[in-house]
Structure formats: structure tokens, C-alpha cells
Amino acid sequence: MPDAYDLIVIGAGPGGYVAAIRAAQLGLKTAVIERESKLGGTCLRVGCIPSKALLETTELFEKSQLHFAERGIIAGEVRVDLPQMMQHKDGVIDQLNMGISGLLKKNKVDHYYGHGRLVGNGQVEVIGTESVESLTAGRFLIATGSVSSSLPGIEPDGDRIGTSTEALSWPQIPKHLVVIGAGVIGLELGTVWRRLGSKVTVLEYLPRILSGTDTQIAKEAQKLFECQGLDFRLQTKVTSVAVQGRQCTIDIDGQDSLHCDRVLVSVGRRPCTDNLGLDAAGVTTDRRGFIQVNSRYETTAAGIFAIGDVIGGAMLAHKAEEEGIACVERMATGHSHINYGTIPSVIYTAPEIASVGMTEDDLKDHGTSYRAGRFTFAANGRAQAAGHTEGFVKVLADKETDRVLGVHILGPHAGELIAEAAVAMEFGASSEDIARCCHAHPTLAEAVKEASLAVDRRAIHS
Asked: What is the reported pLDDT for 2?
């Protein structure tokens, strides 16, 4: 048995491996346990990274079909080589996996392959394919992430009825894909397959898409997605999905059944806590299975901590990373901080959707007096030159103090533009502060400046 560790991290996703590296930098003898053959967790293996690889590639394909000629680029027949597309995606995953492995070695973090299970008395079992190894540590950090949820009457079979994992690697382009759930994952992957030629129908139980997103942004986004070819059916309750041969039948409450050749179930995610030994270790979970922690990420069991998707909140890789760093910094130094009000979120459709802070819906619900400034990309020179004029930037500021309370962007490179807003809000900036900062011309970022000016009704270009 190796010497005892100061910290053992269970799970090598974004939260886990980042926490392990930071712990090692702070002088803690650290190990990480991961049961998958590749490091990086869901985000790298079957989530953020592969989906973005496919989104980037399919956007290039769609541009070649629809927009090259209008720019004076005359190309021959452009075809899809799906196996090569998947090979590129897998290559990106492999490259980043090797990068994480190298970072662990560089920082002297030991890596154990197997399933980690807490057994009490400062010990964890690493259950491998052929053996079980016991490790000891002063502290443990659970960072096991989440897995796809389903619905009653729907049983993913890994083929015709798939989750996001299967939808990232289907060997053929579906003729008709039905997506159950109009959330982030459903819209991103629905966009991938629509661009490749699938008819895509999105079924959503709620009366709107993208629950939790600013309503004005979501409504405008739906119009744009419909123009692109996505078919939305809202307030639709799916009761069951059955497979016969290569066809799926979707039964819908109060409506005719739908028939398609593949189904993507995208109705959220649940914490991954199976067989972790939580009960034996004295770790309490809530009714939905999320591990309960205090402000220091301590569970109800002494010496056991948890971060990321497994404790709930926004299920974002970058949130897990920040929690991992904050958790181990508090272990080592007693100090660290996360401002949950300035954690951005991004949806990588085209146009992208990004936000940070409160939505108008939130402000109205809280009775907060505010002013809103809006600026459309159609009036932005860089957007015009690039041919991406859809969408707008919206800045929400306190009516009395002018402090920025939220920023919401629907438009080109929104995921990059939101960083300015997140930094501004972290430092308590006002809309006047952003408006007074000189932004280079011509850039998309000028739209953020103009929206900030619009809060005070003095935008220059609208």
C-alpha cells in the first residue's frame, strides 16, 4: 500500500483534475481516481469538447452550402464524410486527454484507474477490472459529475433511443431525429444533425425553450432556429417511446404518435453517486440524490468534500473547476472565494447564446428596479462584414446605482463576448464603466459598449 495521501480526488473530470492539480501546487500529496479509460470526465469524453468539435465542423459545412457563393467563393460539390468527421472529433478528445495526463504527471499527482468507493476509516477502494486496491488519505474530494436523465416510459437502448453520449457518435445521419427536451444539449446536438441533413423535431413539455434563459433571448432564438429548420412542439408530453426494427414510435399525450428513425433524450442530468459508499461513509444526499455540502464544500462526513455537478446548481464544467480550486485552497490556506452571480453560461448554437447574472425575469420576480439597454448586431460593422447580423446584446443595470446586474447576448461569438461582462460584474462595474471603456473598431465587442450606452438611452449607432 502506498503512503497515505493528504487528498484523494474521486473523479477526473474538469472539477476533479483541476482540484487535484491545484492541491498539488499547494503542497498536498494528491492522487486522483478515475474509472474511465480517458481523463477529463463527461465534458471531455462525451460532452462539451466532442459536441463543440461537431458544431464547428458542421457549421463549416453549412456555410459552404449556403453562404460561400454570396461571398464570391465558388466551390465544387461539398459532401459529408461522417467517419472522417467522427475521427477528427475523437482526435481532439485524445489530444486533450494526453494533455491532462501530462499535467497530472507534471504536478506529481498520482493517477489510479478504477472505480473509487469510500469504505470508512480514511480509506477508499480502487476497484479495477482485475483487482481491488486500498488507499488511505486525510481527506477525500468527490467530483464524480452527472449522467443523463430519462423519463418514465422511455428507456434509452444505446442505439435508436440515445442520450447525448450516443448522439455524438451515430454512424449514420438520421433521416428524422426527434429530440425530447429543448434545453442546451438538445438544441446543440439537434443543430449538428440538422446541418448534416436530418429532419429535426424538438418536443418540449414546457411552453418555451431554454428554461432559465432570459425570456426575450429565448423567444428570439426560437424564431431563428425555426428559420434554420428546427421544428418545435411545445407543451408536449411524451408518454412512451418504442422501437420496432429501425423505427421509433413516440406516443404523445393528447396528440398523434410520431415516427422517426432516432430519438435523442435530452431532459437533464442527475448526480453520479452510484456505488460510492456514501451511506457507509456517512455522506448525506438530498431527495434528488445531490450530495449536501456547506459553504466549504464539506459533506456531512468529516474529511469528505464534494464539488461540481454532484452537489447541484448549474451543471457547468467551469463552475466545477472553480469549486474544485476554492475547495482545496480553503483546505490548504483557509481562504478562497467564488461569486456564483458572475459565472457565465454559453449555448453553442448559431447564433450563440451567452449570459451572466440575473435575467429580466429574475429582476421582475425580485421586484428590483432596473434599466435595460439593448443593441442589435445588425448595426455593428464587424457583424455586417462577417455576415452574422442576427441577435443582440442586452445589459441590465440597477436603476438607482447603475451597477450591472446581468448581461445577455444572442449573436456571433457570444461565448467570447460574455467574458467582458463577467469581469465587469466581478468588479462591481456600472453600465457607465463599460460604456466609458474604449473598444477597438471594428469589433463585435462594440455591441457590448453600445448596449451599455443604451442603458442611459445614449447609444451612438442605433
From this structure: 62
Looking at domain 342-455, its CATH superfamily turns out to be FAD/NAD-linked reductase, C-terminal dimerisation domain (3.30.390.30)
* Cα–Cα distance, 353 to 393 (Å, whole number): 10
Catalytic residue among 88, 115, 441, 461: 441
pLDDT at 54 > cutoff 90: yes
- Closest of 366, 349, 177, 172 to residue 266, by C-alpha: 177
For residues 156 and 225, give the distance between their C-alpha atoms in angstroms, rounded to a whole number: 26
What is the overall mean pLDDT for the chain?
Answer: 97
Q: Is 441 a catalytic residue?
A: yes
Q: Which of 112, 118, 145, 140 is nearest to 331 (CA)?
A: 140
Whether residue 118 contacts residue 140, with contact meaning beta carbons closer than 8 Å, is answered with yes
Whether 1 shows a pLDDT value over 90: the answer reads no
Superfamily of domain 5-148+270-338: FAD/NAD(P)-binding domain (3.50.50.60)
C-alpha cell read off for 45: 469524453
pLDDT tens digits for 346-405? 999 999 999 999 999 999 999 999 999 999 999 999 999 999 999 999 999 999 999 999
- The pTM score is 0.97
- Could you give the CA distance from residue 214 to residue 252 in angstroms, rounded to a whole number? 28
Q: Which amino acid is at 415?
A: G
